[in-house]
Write a structure and sequence with these properties.
- This protein is α/β, with parallel strands linked by helices and 411 residues long.
- The chain is built from 10 helices and 9 strands.
- A 7-stranded parallel β-sheet has the order 2-3-1-4-5-6-7, sandwiched between helices.
- Helix 3 packs parallel to helix 9 and helix 5 runs parallel beside helix 6.
- It is elongated and about 100 Å long.
- The structure holds calcium ion (4 copies).
- The site of one calcium ion has 6 residues, from loops.
Length: 411
Amino acid sequence: MHRILTSTSMKIRSNILVLVMTLMLLLSTTYAVGKSNTKHNYLLSNYSSFTDIGWHLNQINITGAWDITVGSEDIVIAVIDSGIDWSHTQINNSWKNVDELPGDGIDDDANGYIDDTHGWDFTANDSEPGPEATDPIHWHATFITGIICAALDNIGVAGTAPNVTVMDIRVLDASNYQDTSLEGLGEAIKYAVDNGADVINLSLQYYAPSNLYLDDIQYAITNNVPVVSVTGNTWAGGIEYASYPGAYDEVISVGATNYFYQKADYSNFGLPWTEIMAPVGDVEPWIPSQIINSTYPPPYSPYGNAVGTSFAAPQVAAVIALMRTINSTMSVNDFRTILQTTAFDLDAPGVDPLTGYGLLNATAAVLEVYNRTYPLIIEYSRLRMTLFLGLVIITMVILPIITKRKKDRRF
Ligand SMILES: [Ca+2]
Ligand SMILES: [Ca+2]
Ligand SMILES: [Ca+2]
Ligand SMILES: [Ca+2]
C-alpha cells in the first residue's frame, strides 16, 4: 500500500513536471514569436481583404511578401525623375527633410541646398521639384510613385510597397526629356545618397554613358544604396541595345513583360545588362485591362494606363524597399543576388538576352531576406521543440518503465 502510494505520487509529480515544463516552453515560444512580430511593426494581417490590387502585382506574387511586410516609412526610395504631384489623394508618403526650415533662405541642415524641405529640382535648381504655376511637370514621376506607394485601401490602385517613403528629385522637363547636364544627374544621385535614400529609381533611358554620373552611381553602391534602372524602350518592337544608365554593371537594369509573361513588345534587351523583368503590358494592341494602371496628376483623370520599362523598374525598387524593411544592412550584392536567384525563369531556360534572370518574385525575395535575417528565432523554436519532446518521452515513457521495473523488483 505504501509502495503503491509512492509510485502514484511519483506519477503525479512527473505529470506536474510535464505540465509545468510544457507551459514554460509554450510561453517562451509564444513570447519569442510575439517579440519578433511586435519588434518589427510592419506586419499587415488583412491584405487579403484588398481584392483588386492590379494584375501586375499578382504576377510578381506580392501578397506573400505583404504577409511579411508592406514596408516601413523609414525606408526611402529616391525617384529621380520628372517631379511628383503629391496632390493626388492616393499618394501620401513624401519624404520630408526634417532638419530644413522652409522659406527662410537658409540651408539649415547645411547639405548644400537651401530650403530643400521635400527634395530638389535639378532642372530649375530650386527647392520645388513638384508642379509650379510657372514650371509644370510631366505625369511620369507621379505614375511611378503610385506604382511604388499608392495607398492600400481598396480605392484606385495599390502600390508595391504601400508604406515606404518616396524622395522627389527632378531631372526631367515637362515633356519628360533630360533637363540637366550629365554632371547634374550625378549631383541628383549624390543628393539622394547624402540625404538618406535606401534605394534609387532611375526610370531614365538613352543617356550618354559618362563618368560625370557613373562616379555618383558608384558612390551610391559604396554607401550600400542599390540603383535600379531600365533596359529602355523602342516602340517598333524593342532592340538589342545598351541603354544608359541601366547598362552599367553597377545598376540593376529592369525590362518589361506583357500580360502573358513574355517580353513586352517595346522592351529593349541584350546581355549582360538585362537583369530582371517586371510586368507592364504591351503597347500593341492597346488593351487597358492588360496594361499597368497607376496614378495620374491633374489635369488627367486620377488613374490610367501607361506602358514602358519606366514602370517596371519601380516595382523592383519597391521590392528592394520591402527587403530593406526586413534587413537594412544587407549588402547591395546580396539584395541583387536574391532578386536574381528567386526570379521566375522566363523564355529560354536560365539567364537569356530577352528576360535576363526572369520575372520579379516579390514573395520569394522578401522571404529569403527574412529567413537570412531571423535564422536564430527558428533555431530556438526547434531547440525548444526538441527539449519539449525529449522531456515528454522521458516522463511519459522512460520514467514509468523505470518505476515499473523498481516495482517489479520490489514484488
Ligand atoms: Ca538644405
Ligand atoms: Ca531653410
Ligand atoms: Ca521647380
Ligand atoms: Ca530564362
